[in-house]
Design goal:
This protein is of the alpha+beta class. It is built from one helix and eight strands; from the N terminus they run H-E-E-E-E-E-E-E-E. The N and C termini lie far apart (72 Å).
């Protein structure tokens, strides 16, 4: 390998390493800044889907608006935000976009992507977490 090629390869590697973590940190900080302390209600194809309450320390509470709530936490991985909930062994990672119309998140497994959008109007329901189920 020539010295010129080695120098330009090294310079590219340094730029990528220097820019990568900074961009990663900015994305996590942007997501945290937008969501922390809020409860965001999500629609799927124009219909209410669920809500997530974003707590300090990257903790969350998710509900399908059925009175049952699942506790978890989020973390940034690459350009996605991953959620690890108490009732799941594996994290779910979502790509996200924050725009003038709010937050939208997408997850794409083997099939079609699921995209949820932040409700732009006041939610029709409240996010209510009922106590644990009792009895048999």
């Amino acid at each position: 390998m020539s010295d010129a090629l080695r120098s330009s390869s090294l310079a590219l590697l340094i730029c990528l390493l220097a820019g990568g973590p900074a961009a990663f940190a900015a994305d996590a900080a942007q997501f945290d800044s937008y969501t922390r302390g809020r409860t965001i209600f999500f629609d799927w194809q124009g219909q209410p889907y669920g809500a997530e309450r974003y707590l300090p320390g990257q903790r969350v509470i998710w509900s399908f608006l059925d009175g049952r709530c699942t506790y978890g936490e989020w973390y940034a991985q690459g350009d996605e935000i991953c959620f690890l909930y108490e009732d799941r062994a594996e994290a779910q990672c979502w790509s996200y976009d924050i725009s003038d119309t709010g937050l939208s998140v997408s997850i794409g497994d083997a099939g079609a992507a699921l995209t949820l959008t932040e409700q732009t109007e006041a939610p029709q329901e409240e996010m209510v977490c009922l106590g644990p189920e009792v009895g048999v």
